[in-house]
Design goal:
This protein is an alpha/beta fold. It contains 6 helices and 13 strands. α5 runs antiparallel to α6 (221-232).
């Protein structure tokens, strides 16, 4: 699904539009001078559904030159090996995510003994917080956004005259936030990451689940701060 001249939404599971495998996170393509950068790789199940989206949008797999991972939860990273083999693209991952991707296995077996496993997925490039790097010729700037997990990054890009933030699972449309029981999830740190974004300017938000926001995206940030502060005060999480 083409969202703008340079942004495509090609994957989304049950916590979202449901047009690809149920376990998929949102998967995006950003068009750069040298091809496309895929943001997150989905869960690896039924990749033909993402391929169908590519075909509908007129994108050939070999045109994908980079796979950029926001964090190493299974629904974002388990498909990365498949897409690297299918496209020949390089995988770019946050430094902390790279350690888990190298070893594979379960992300937090002490929290979820029945948790999902990933195969070892060594990244081609490790990205540091604050680093600006080129993916498919497109300059992306990494920002460390822990809270949902310790190693999560967001990525800023300038596309179609707008500043875009791919934020992983930091917050979603309407201020929804998700804090799991993994040992590296922390609501207080989550709040600090949200507060850090008040100093940034962005008008497009590409979250890891639910729905992208293509204009005035920064208006959703105060709602997310309010929501995490409610949770810190012991109130139940927003439903839906």
């Amino acid at each position: 699904m083409r969202l703008s001249e340079s942004i495509y939404w090609i994957g989304g599971g049950s916590v979202g539009p449901g047009f690809t495998a149920a376990g998929d996170c949102n998967v995006y393509l950003l068009r750069g001078p040298e091809g496309y950068a895929m943001v997150d790789a989905g869960c690896g199940e039924r990749p033909e559904l993402i391929e169908r989206q590519l075909a509908w949008d007129g994108v050939k797999p070999h045109e994908i030159k980079a796979i950029v991972i926001t964090h190493a939860h299974w629904d974002h990273v388990k498909g990365a090996n498949y897409w690297r083999e299918r496209t020949g693209a390089k995988i770019y991952a946050p430094e902390g995510a790279a350690e888990y991707m190298l070893r594979g296995g379960q992300y937090a077996p002490e929290a979820r003994p029945d948790g999902y496993r990933i195969d070892p997925t060594p990244p081609d490039e490790r990205i540091a917080a604050g680093e600006t790097f080129a993916a498919a010729g497109l300059n992306l700037t990494a920002i460390h956004l822990p809270g949902h997990c310790a190693h999560m990054f967001g990525f800023f890009a300038e596309l179609d005259g707008a500043r875009v933030l791919a934020c992983g699972d930091l917050f979603y449309w309407g201020g929804k936030v998700t804090v799991f029981l993994n040992p590296d999830a922390d609501r207080a740190i989550f709040r600090q990451s949200l507060l850090r974004l008040r100093d940034e300017s962005f008008s497009v938000l590409l979250p890891g689940h639910r729905y992208p926001v293509m204009q005035q995206a920064q208006q959703h940030l105060p709602l997310a701060i309010e929501e995490i502060e409610r949770q810190l005060a012991g109130q139940p999480a927003m439903r839906g």
